[in-house]
């Protein structure tokens, strides 16, 4: 059974940093494109960042460019999202997603709250 587990969320002041991790059991994340999404109350889920399979390309939403960095730690079968210079508008539940056609997996989410 495949599981994705996000961790690293929490409460931080504006300007602070958090590092989210997405760890998998049952699949090798390096074989998959992995994305981070977020959903704020009353809003649609939106893509934040993704990294293609292997040493692939990285993509960022305009709202997080220059502040967030996605990376792989293959030894730990993990994809990390380093979030710096956090803003109150970054407050949301953050989800990771692993995708390799036709397989598609989601984690349960981790809450990030940024206070002003």
What can you tell me about this protein's structure?
This protein is mostly beta strands. The chain has strands at residues 3-7, 10-13, 18-25, 33-39, 46-51, 58-60, 68-73, 78-83, 92-100, 103-106, 110-115. The model has no long low-confidence stretch (mean pLDDT 96).
Search tags:
116 residues, mainly beta, 7-stranded mixed sheet, 4-stranded antiparallel sheet, globular
Output the number of helix runs: 0
Radius of gyration from CA coordinates: 13 Å
The total count of strands amounts to 11
| Assembly status | single chain
Q: Could you say which overall geometry the principal axes of the C-alpha atoms support?
A: globular
Biggest sheet, open or closed, and with what strands and sense? Answer: 7 strands, mixed
Secondary structure layout:
Layout: E1 3-7, E2 10-13, E3 18-25, E4 33-39, E5 46-51, E6 58-60, E7 68-73, E8 78-83, E9 92-100, E10 103-106, E11 110-115
Parallel strand pairs: 2-11
Antiparallel strand pairs: 1-3, 3-8, 4-5, 4-9, 5-6, 7-8, 9-10, 9-11
TL;DR?
With 116 residues, this protein is mainly β. The chain has strands at 3-7, 10-13, 18-25, 33-39, 46-51, 58-60, 68-73, 78-83, 92-100, 103-106, 110-115.
């Amino acid at each position: 059974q495949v599981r994705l587990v996000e961790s690293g969320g929490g409460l931080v002041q504006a300007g602070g940093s958090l590092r989210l991790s997405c760890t998998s059991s049952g699949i090798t994340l390096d074989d998959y494109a992995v994305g981070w999404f977020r959903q704020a109350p009353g809003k649609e889920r939106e893509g934040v960042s993704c990294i293609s399979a292997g040493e692939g390309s990285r993509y960022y939403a305009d709202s997080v460019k220059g502040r967030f960095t996605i990376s792989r730690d293959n030894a730990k079968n993990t994809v990390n999202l380093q979030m710096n210079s956090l803003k109150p508008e970054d407050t949301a539940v953050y989800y990771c997603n692993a995708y390799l056609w036709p397989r598609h997996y989601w984690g349960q989410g981790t809450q990030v709250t940024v206070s002003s």
